[in-house]
Specification:
The complex is a heterodimer of chains A (about 100) and B (about 200). Chain A is mainly alpha-helical. Chain A has one domain (about 1-80). Helices cover about 60% and strands about 0% of the residues of chain A. Chain A is built from six helices and no strands. The longest helix of chain A has 20 residues, at about 55-75. The radius of gyration of chain A is 23 Å and the shape is elongated. Chain B is mostly helical and about 200 residues long. Chain B has two domains: about 10-95, Rna Polymerase Sigma Factor, Chain: A, CATH 1.10.1740.10; about 130-195, Winged helix-like DNA-binding domain superfamily/Winged helix DNA-binding domain (Arc Repressor Mutant, subunit A, Orthogonal Bundle). Chain B has nine helices and no strands. In chain B, helix 2 crosses helix 4 and helix 8 (about 165-175) crosses helix 9 (about 175-195). Chain B starts with 10 loop residues before the first helix and ends with a helix. The chains are: A mainly alpha (about 100), B mainly alpha (about 200). Bound molecules: zinc ion. The site of zinc ion has 6 residues of chain A, from helix 2 and helix 5. Zinc ion binds near residues 25, 28, 55 and 57 of chain A.
Chain lengths: ~100, ~200
């Protein structure tokens, strides 16, 4: 993925100063990260959403992309159970001993 | 979990930090017993070998002990220890060197000459609900994440699982903000492809 062009400014940034135009799928993809982090200006977001509404392939792509992120989070979800492992007593003792050796 | 939020530090934490700064042995033992299990769980996300995870927790406590004077109270002790643990785990991973990775086709999305997406008919058939009811499916996705190349895996764990911001991740991995963004996109894309390659 190429975020910056030669000028060090991305296309959406450049377009931010101009009249709203449309972006293609490749440009759309470069802004998914910022879109999901709510880092796009409202003008950038409008251009992004316009493409999303007009392009079924990017819509499908983004859906699976977000699903993949949610699946990774669900994989680590311990459903309200403790996020603590049992702490072995030997480890507690090893840490206390290591601390004593410090200056 | 948003760790970038400033956490109101509790009076308990303030007291504990004061005692730790004075070298109080009982307070250090309390810290180890209170948060050790939590730190061990975090370390195990990065390191699957129990001995490595335990080493990481020990390293983290020693570093915490040595750095307690720098603890400014901008976060809770728990999130401070969380960060130190992640740091220690990343160092351990670096020291361990190579690990096996799944050989997946990780070519980026394809576009035609006009930047139009060339569609593939792959999709993820696994559902979030499957994971909620089936621990084996959870394990399967974790295994997929484990098999990502190390940078991809670390970025995914830090941003999507631990909830660190782009800026925090850039500090933890000592790479630029742009590299975090590009790398995270690549990591998510890799995982997406890997999940698409399975039929559940
Ligand atoms: Zn498109």
């Amino acid at each position: 993925m190429k975020i910056n062009n030669e000028n060090g400014k991305n296309k959406l940034e450049l377009k931010n100063d101009m009249t709203i135009q449309s972006i293609n799928c490749q440009e759309f993809e470069e802004f998914i990260i910022d879109f999901l982090d709510s880092n796009l200006s409202s003008m950038q977001q409008n251009i992004f959403l316009k493409h999303l509404n007009e392009c079924p392939s990017c819509k499908r792509y983004l859906e699976d992309y977000q699903k993949s992120v949610k699946l990774s989070q669900a994989a680590f979800d311990n459903k309200g159970e403790s996020d603590y492992e049992a702490m072995p007593e030997e480890l507690v003792q090893a840490i206390l001993a290591a601390r004593k050796k410090l200056p | 979990m948003d760790l970038s939020k400033k956490v109101e530090i509790s009076t308990n934490d303030i007291q504990l930090v004061e005692q730790l700064k004075h070298g109080d042995t009982d307070s250090f033992e309390y810290l180890v017993r209170e948060y050790g299990g939590y730190m061990l769980a975090i370390a195990k996300r990065y390191l699957h070998n129990d001995a490595d995870a335990q080493d990481t927790v020990q390293d983290a406590y020693i570093r915490a002990f040595q750095a307690i004077h720098n603890f400014k109270g901008h976060s809770s002790i728990k999130s401070w220890l969380h960060r130190i643990t992640v740091n220690s785990a990343l160092m351990k991973l670096r020291a361990n060197g190579r690990r096996p990775v799944e050989l997946i086709d990780d070519s980026p999305s394809l576009f035609d000459g006009n930047g139009k997406r060339i569609e593939t008919n792959s999709e993820i058939t696994l559902s979030i609900e499957d994971l909620a009811i089936d621990a084996n499916k959870q394990w399967l996705v974790k295994a997929k994440i484990d098999l990502l190349p190390i940078t991809s895996r670390n970025l995914l764990l830090l941003r999507d699982i631990e909830g660190y911001s782009t800026e925090e991740t850039s500090e933890l991995l000592n790479i630029s903000i742009a590299a975090v963004k590009t790398g995270l996109h690549r990591a998510r894309q890799r995982l997406k492809k890997s999940l698409e390659s399975e039929r559940y």
